[in-house]
Amino acid sequence: MSMAGQSSSITLECDCLRFPFGHSSVASVLTGARSSHEVRDTVEQLRRPIPAALWDELRAEGLLAPDTPVPAAAPTGEAMPSEEPS
């Protein structure tokens, strides 16, 4: 990937895990985790909010078509809900 995303703390792994959820037909993503550490890392990546500006940068650089569906951005400071028991 080019310079898009390098100005934020979002990782390429996080972008790739979240991107498919932008399409309304996608309900789940298989990650191929091989250990409990990889499962925990995947959950942590999915909890990180991705700013809408990242997808806008990718479109501006021609890496995404203008009509490509992308995930909705979580409001600043709001991550995905935890699935751990309360």
Spell out the key features of this protein.
single chain, 86 residues, mainly alpha, 0% strand, globular, disordered C terminus
Averaged pLDDT: 80
Summed up, the helix count is: 3
Secondary structure: helix percent: 25-40%
> Hey, roughly how much beta strand do the residues contain?
under 5%
First and last CA, distance:
38 Å
Helix/strand-derived category reads mainly alpha
> How would you describe the shape?
globular
CA-atom Rg in angstroms: 14 Å
Number of strands: 0
Report the sheet with the most strands, covering strand number, pairing sense and barrel closure: none
What does it look like?
With 86 residues, the protein is mostly helical. The chain has a domain at 12-60. It has helices at 12-18, 36-47, 52-60. The longest helix has 12 residues, at 36-47. The termini are far apart. The model is unreliable at 81-86 (pLDDT under 50). Residues 66-76 have a biased composition (Low complexity).
Ordered list of secondary-structure elements with their pairings:
Blueprint (H helix, E strand, L loop, with lengths): L11 H7 L17 H12 L4 H9 L26
Brief digest:
The chain has 86 residues and is mainly alpha-helical.
